[in-house]
Amino acid sequence: MRTPLLLQSLKARLAGLHDLIGPLASQRHFSPRFDRQLFPSKSERLGDYLTQAEGTLSRLEAAVAQNDAARVAWLAERLALQTEALRREAATAALRRHENAHLPGGRLHTRLAQYQEYERRLLAMKTGRERQLAAGDDPQLQREIQALDERLARCRAAVARTERALERITR
């Protein structure tokens, strides 16, 4: 049965997160970090979310002991999503360092992070459409790619404007 391997893999992921999130665990954040469906309780500290993921692991181990296959599958998927969300959050901690509105330019940093996320999503959408277009010639896909290019140009202009505004503030 693959359940012991799954548990071992999820425990290893969680242990890796402890090392990654350790320095960030007690930092306070004033904006929501995760979807309420993924982490039911709202917290200001990243360490509290890590504790919730550990609770999910405990419930998963209990479900494995009870041989509840449906619950094991659901909890394993949920824990994998939680660990991945925590990993992404830790990876973007440097970008979010100035996100708090009480800092000079905090709102601009927040807006810049949003624009950069929009740009990343638009690039991913464009790449997907280009792959589909390479598989077959569809005029609708060509129009979508053109529209995505226009949206991407507007997004990049917004990023540049925000970066210039931040430079003016930090001088």
Could you explain how this protein is built, in words?
It holds the Pfam family PriC. This is Primosomal protein. InterPro entries: PriC, PriC_sf. With 171 residues, this protein is mainly alpha-helical. It folds into two domains: 1-100; 104-170. The protein has six helices and no strands. The radius of gyration is 21 Å and the shape is flat. The mean pLDDT is 83.
Primary descriptors:
Primosomal protein, 6 helices, 2 domains, 0% strand, flat, 171 residues, PriC, 75% helix, mainly alpha
List the helices and strands and how they pair.
Blueprint lengths: L2 H19 L24 H20 L3 H23 L1 H4 L9 H30 L3 H32 L1
Helix pairs in contact: 1-2, 1-3, 2-3, 5-6
Can you summarize this structure?
This protein has 171 residues and is mainly alpha-helical.
Could you estimate the helical fraction of the residues in percent? over 70%
Question: Low-confidence runs (pLDDT<50, min 5 residues)?
Answer: none
Number of separate helices: 6
State Rg. Answer: 21 Å
Structural class assignment: mainly alpha
End-to-end gap = 61 Å
Mean pLDDT across every amino acid position: 83
Shape: flat
What is the succession of H and E elements?
HHHHHH
**Which range does the strand content fall in?**
under 5%
